[in-house]
Structures are given as structure tokens and as C-alpha cells.
Design a protein that fits this description.
Elements lengths: L2 H38 L1 E3 H8 L3 H9 L6 E4 L2 E5 H10 L9 H15 L2
Antiparallel strand pairs: 1-3, 2-3
Helix pairs in contact: 4-5
Protein name: DNA-binding protein
Organism: Prevotella melaninogenica
Length: 117
């Protein structure tokens, strides 16, 4: 290989390395932005019932046993932070006999994708 070809190849590799560095920085920024959005997503009781396919009684039991995080917005309106709900389902804290955890996680992931678009 000639000296000129070697230099050209080195320049191209350096350019590619710089582009990869920029892509990595962009991905880190997206992750940071996405994380901020994820922290702000809150679900209503109706959302949780629909997404997880559970009954009102099961949701109430999870609240009573502190299996899932929640907060009252008003006397009859409860919201659930997405991230806390997701972690409760994923770790098995929020479960009952016959509860399909993997399906619930898939539905939660799909919801998160829609909510952040």
C-alpha cells in the first residue's frame, strides 16, 4: 500500500471514529431526555386497570399492601407513577395468582412508547 493510500485510510478511520463519538453522545442525550419523560409519566386508575388487565379490587389490594406506589390528586383521583408501577410488576411485588407478568410488562412498554412520542 502506498504512503498516500495509508494516509487516506487513516483519515477515513479518524472521521468514522469522530462520527461514532457524535452518535454515542446523541444516544446519551436521548437516554437522559427519555429518562426525564419517564419520570413524569403518571397513570390513572383506569389506565392501570386497562393496561394490566386487573380488577378494581386487585388494584385496591395492591394499594393497601403498598405493593405499588401511588398518590392522591384529589379525594377520588389516584395516579400511579409509571416507573414505580413498572418496577413493582417487574420485580413481582405487584402480583397475584394467574397474573401474567410478562404480558403486563409488554403492555406497559408499549404504553411508555406511545406516551413519549
Amino acid at each position: 500500500m502506498e504512503h498516500h493510500e495509508t494516509l487516506s485510510l487513516i483519515n477515513e478511520l479518524q472521521a468514522l471514529r469522530e462520527e461514532f463519538r457524535q452518535i454515542a453522545c446523541f444516544i446519551r442525550e436521548l437516554k437522559r431526555d427519555y429518562s426525564v419523560l419517564e419520570e413524569k409519566i403518571e397513570l390513572s386508575s383506569a389506565d392501570v386497570l386497562h393496561l394490566l388487565g386487573i380488577s378494581k379490587a386487585s388494584l385496591a389490594r395492591w394499594r393497601e399492601s403498598n405493593s405499588i406506589p401511588y398518590r392522591y390528586v384529589s379525594s377520588n383521583h389516584v395516579v400511579y407513577p409509571f416507573k414505580g408501577l413498572y418496577l413493582s410488576v417487574k420485580t413481582g411485588r405487584a402480583t397475584f395468582k394467574g397474573f401474567r407478568r410478562l404480558e403486563a410488562l409488554q403492555r406497559l412498554n408499549a404504553y411508555k412508547g406511545e406516551a413519549t412520542c
